[in-house]
Amino acid sequence: MKTHPKRSNEEIVSIRNNNINPCLSVAYKNTLKIVKGRGVWLYDDEGNKYLDMVNNVSHLGHCHPKITQVACEQMQQLNTNSRYLHDNLAEYSLQLLKTFPKELSVVFLCCTGSEANELALRLARAKSGGDQIITVDGAYHGNTQTLIDISPYKHNAKGGQGAPDYVQTITMPDIYRGAIQQSENAGENYAQYIDAAIQAIKDKNKQLSAFICESLLGCGGQMPLPAEYLKNIYAKVRAAGGVCIADEVQVGFGRCGTHMWSFEQQGVVPDIVTLGKPIGNGHPMSAVITTREIADSFNTGMEYFNTFSANPVSCAIGLAVLEVIKDEGLQANALKIGNHILSGLKDIQKHCSFIGDVRGTGLYIGAEFVKDRDSKTPAPIELNKVVELLRDKNILVSTEGPDHNVLKIKPPMVINQEQADLFLDSLKTSLKELDYWL
Ligand SMILES: Cc1ncc(COP(=O)(O)O)c(C=O)c1O
C-alpha cells in the first residue's frame, strides 16, 4: 500500500478544524494519536501504551486475534448483500436468538445503533398504530433526527431545541439526585411518572407507540435502574397499547456481569431489544430483536433492505464475538473485576469528598463528582482535571451524565485484576496530586 505522510498532532487537529466534521470534539487537551490496539491497551505513535478504561465497543479487547482472523478470511472469500442465501447469516441469527428469551424470536440486522433504534421505532409504529413516544430524561438513543427528538441528553443541551410534540419525557429514576431519593420501592415509585405521560397522550386523542429506555442508563450517568422499575413501567405501557423497547446498544453482551442482557436484571422481557457497539467488536453492525407478532405487523409489503447489513463478513464477526464471550468467560470476568473496581472506588470515596456516589454493575460503573455531598452540586471541572491527569498517567477514562460530572468506567471485558488495580492506584495518586484527598 502507498505510504501516506505522517503528520504531527497539531497538523491533524488543524485539518480536522478546517476540513472535517466541525461538530465533534477531540478527546483530551493533550491530544492523542492512537495507532495500535491490543487487548485493553492502546498505543500512540511513539509507542507509549495507555490503559483503555472506557471503550465498550472493543468488548473482547482491541484487535482480538480471532475477530481479525475471521474477518480477513471471510473478506477474502466473499462480501455481498443479504439477498443471497448464506450459512453465516442463518447461523449467526440462530446463535444470537439463543441468548434471548424464547418470545424474542426474530432478528433484523443493521449497521449502527442509530439504525437499530430507528427500525425499532418503525416496528413499534406498525404494531401500535400510534406515533407517540415516551422517553426517559437524560437519555441518548442515536444521531438521526427522530432519535435526537427522543434523546433529551441532546435536545435539551447546547444547540438543542427541546422535545417535539410527539415525545413525552419522564423523570430519570435517579435515586442519588432525582425526585425520589429513597431506595425503598424506588422502582415502583419512579414508574408512576409514566402515568401523566400516558394521560397527556390520551388527552390529545393520540395513540402511544413506544416506551424506550436503556436497561442501564448511560448518558443519564452510568446508572443502574431501581429494582422493579421496568416491570411496573412495561405493564402500564402495554395497558396503553404501546410497545416496550430496551436499548442495549451500550450495555448488552454480558457487560452487566450477572446476565447476558441487562434487561434480565429487571425480570422483564421487552417487546423489542436493540443491540450495537460491542456486537462486532468494532466492526459496524447492530441488531433489532423482536417477537414474531411485531415482525409480522411490519411485514406490509414494503421491504426492509439494508445494503451493508447481514453481509457474510459481519455475520462471521458476530458469530466469533459470541463464541469468544463464551469461551473466555467474559460475563463472569465482568462481574468479578467489576465488583473489584466498585469496592476499590468505594474505598477511595472515603478519602475524597468530591466523590458523592459510586454505582454500577459488572463493567459498567460510574463515580459521580459533586462540590459537596450535602448540596450535591455537580463538579464537572474538578472531574475533568482528574480525567486529564489520568490521561497524562496513561490511563484513559471519560465523563458522562447531563452535568458531565460522572467518571465513566466501561473497559474492554478482558480487563484483569492487575490492570484494574493499576487504574485504581493511578486514580488515587491523581486525587492526591490534585489535593482532593482527605
Ligand atoms: C444507548 C445508545 N443507543 C444508541 C446509540 C447510537 O449508536 P450509534 O452511534 O452506533 O449509531 C448510542 C451511541 O452512543 C447509545 O449510547
Describe what this molecule looks like in 3D.
Helix 2 (65-77) runs antiparallel to helix 11 and helix 3 (87-97) runs parallel beside helix 11 (312-327). By secondary structure, this protein is an alpha/beta fold. The protein has 2 domains: 27-60 and 332-433, Aspartate Aminotransferase, domain 1 (Alpha-Beta Complex); 66-327, Aspartate Aminotransferase, domain 2, CATH 3.40.640. The protein is 37% helix and 17% strand. The radius of gyration is 22 Å and the shape is globular. The model has no long low-confidence stretch (mean pLDDT 97). The protein has a 7-stranded mixed β-sheet with strand order 4-12-11-10-7-5-6, sandwiched between helices. The protein has a 4-stranded mixed β-sheet with strand order 1-2-3-15. It has a 4-stranded antiparallel β-sheet with strand order 13-14-17-16, covered by helices on one side. It has helices spanning 9-19, 65-77, 87-97, 113-128, 145-149, 152-155, 186-191, 193-203, 229-239, 292-298, 312-327, 330-349, 380-392, 417-433; strands spanning 34-38, 41-44, 49-52, 106-110, 132-136, 167-170, 208-214, 216-217, 223-224, 243-247, 272-275, 286-290, 355-361, 364-369, 395-396, 398-400, 406-409. Bound molecules: pyridoxal-5'-phosphate (PLP).
